[in-house]
């Protein structure tokens, strides 16, 4: 018994019992990080980390800023009230604080571009409805605001039932509050027949309507695009017209409600930009044509096409030597979207520099519809500009934009639409811009 208590540690152990680690298999080293992750719920932490990063990239993509520096700037005008009001919506939709955001930037790999919420005033009209088609097509949600003075539900009714489309009957002369990211402000009668119909209403739409929409842009931090016009150049003394040209406008003529109205709208837009920090864009649109134009609106292309289809003489005002440029509507829509998504305020001329006299245009219409169509001369209307041709160098350089559709290619599409509407061979709203 006693001998069992004797310490024998000093006795040498037989070599066979001594510890020697087993050589490890090569796969052990490969699997080690995986086993490490699986131990003690580390996997859960890794997954949570990935989820947070995904949310971060989704709501704060670095491409949001126009500087491309990855920062989202908060404007000075941003107040707590706005934050409380809009914090219900994700920041990318709020517009608040995204003053320098360029939604057209790069999207992180694997993440889809988020749709925006966009208001198009005058969206049931000719240009507006084609713009709405494009915005819906690329995945945005669109709210059309229109009083249907010259617009038609038929122009947008192919979107009825689409949850990303809403239509509000509203006159922009009255204020309106909507939570949106971008505002395309088109509401205004564009043809002389319509804008001269109620000149006071026209200038109110241009001044009060634009004020209301700029106020909305300021309030919700939305980017605002004004569709101005080549009419701001009046009867130009410079040819072709460059954006720096200030124009030659009669302030008291019958067209002034439109020309001066748009000039004031441009002034308001720039004042909101400089004074209130609203992000703005200005497009000066030159003559545009295409499907869904009002048939009897007195604009020269729609006049000639409708007259030729109805076998009436084509009315040429004056000697027919005054020139215009004609832009197909899909080219304009592309330019408007590029302008809105780009970094430059403008103004930008958006038009087709191809110049036609009225007589040359009549000839193209004769070739496309009826070679026997007669031409009838009438006295010219008051203040009708003699020459109109855009210089689009600025849009080419800064927006990478230029028109692609020639008159001879675009006109047949418009003729097809007019034929359907005039002769009742109807498919309302179905007219597209596709070449
Ligand atoms: N089409 C062109 O050649 C051309 C040229 C220069 C500028 N523009 C500008 O482009 C914009 C669109 O022109 P368009 O050719 O599509 O004209 P349009 O007449 O077809 O469309 C104008 C739309 O605005 C709506 N509207 C008018 N007043 C309104 C108001 N007070 N409240 C709400 N809605 C109102 C009309 O109902 C219509 O739907 C206009 O601002 C116009 O000045 C067009």
TrEMBL record:
Segments passing through the bilayer: 42-60
Pathway connected to this protein: Nucleotide-sugar biosynthesis; UDP-alpha-D-xylose biosynthesis; UDP-alpha-D-xylose from UDP-alpha-D-glucuronate: step 1/1
EC category name: lyase
Coiled coil residues, start to end: none
EC numbers: 4.1.1.35
Residue intervals of the NAD(P)-binding domain: 120-412
UniProt cross-references to Gene3D superfamilies, sorted A to Z: NAD(P)-binding Rossmann-like Domain (3.40.50.720)
InterPro entries, A to Z: NAD(P)-bd_dom, NAD(P)-bd_dom_sf, UXS-like
Annotated signal peptide: none
Protein family: Belongs to the NAD(P)-dependent epimerase/dehydratase family. UDP-glucuronic acid decarboxylase subfamily.
Protein's job: Catalyzes the NAD-dependent decarboxylation of UDP-glucuronic acid to UDP-xylose. Necessary for the biosynthesis of the core tetrasaccharide in glycosaminoglycan biosynthesis.
Name listed for the protein in its UniProt record: UDP-glucuronate decarboxylase
Biological source species: Ziziphus jujuba (Chinese jujube)
């Amino acid at each position: 018994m006693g001998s069992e208590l004797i310490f024998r540690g000093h006795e040498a152990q037989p070599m066979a019992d001594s510890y020697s680690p087993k050589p490890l298999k090569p796969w052990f080293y490969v699997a080690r990080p995986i086993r490490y992750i699986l131990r003690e719920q580390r996997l859960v932490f890794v997954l949570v980390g990935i989820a947070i990063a995904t949310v971060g990239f989704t709501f704060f993509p670095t491409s949001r800023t126009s500087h491309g520096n990855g920062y989202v700037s908060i404007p000075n005008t941003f107040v707590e009230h706005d934050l409380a009001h809009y914090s219900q919506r994700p920041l990318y939709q709020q517009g608040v604080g995204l003053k320098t955001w360029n939604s057209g930037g790069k999207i992180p790999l694997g993440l889809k571009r988020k749709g925006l919420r966009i208001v198009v005033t005058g969206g049931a009209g000719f240009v507006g409805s084609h713009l709405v088609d494009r915005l819906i097509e690329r995945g945005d949600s669109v709210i059309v605001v229109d009083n249907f003075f010259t617009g038609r539900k038929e122009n947008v009714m192919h979107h009825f039932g689409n949850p990303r489309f809403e239509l509000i009957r509203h006159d922009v002369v009255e204020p309106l509050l909507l939570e949106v990211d971008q505002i395309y402000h088109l509401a205004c009668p564009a043809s002389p027949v319509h804008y001269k119909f109620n000149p006071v209403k026209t200038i109110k739409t241009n001044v009060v309507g634009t004020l209301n929409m700029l106020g909305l842009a300021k309030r919700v931090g939305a980017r605002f695009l004004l569709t101005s016009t080549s009419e701001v150049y009046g009867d130009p003394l410079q040819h072709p017209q460059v954006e720096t040209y200030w124009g030659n406008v009669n302030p008291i003529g019958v067209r002034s409600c439109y020309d001066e109205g748009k000039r004031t709208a441009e002034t308001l837009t720039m004042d909101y930009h400089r004074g209130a920090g609203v992000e703005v864009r200005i497009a000066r649109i030159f003559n545009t044509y295409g499907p869904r134009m009002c048939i009897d609106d007195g604009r020269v292309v729609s006049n000639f096409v409708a007259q030729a289809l109805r076998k009436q003489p084509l009315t040429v005002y004056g000697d027919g030597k005054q020139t215009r440029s004609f832009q197909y509507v899909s080219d304009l829509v592309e330019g408007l979207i590029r302008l809105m998504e780009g970094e430059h305020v403008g103004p930008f001329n958006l038009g087709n520099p191809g110049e036609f006299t009225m007589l040359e245009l009549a000839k193209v219409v004769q070739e496309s519809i009826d070679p026997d169509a007669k031409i009838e001369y009438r006295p010219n209307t008051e203040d009708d500009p003699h020459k109109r041709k855009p210089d689009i160098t600025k849009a080419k350089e800064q927006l990478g934009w230029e028109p692609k559709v020639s008159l001879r290619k675009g006109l047949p599409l418009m003729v097809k639409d007019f034929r359907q509407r005039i002769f009742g061979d109807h498919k309302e709203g179905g007219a597209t811009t596709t070449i």
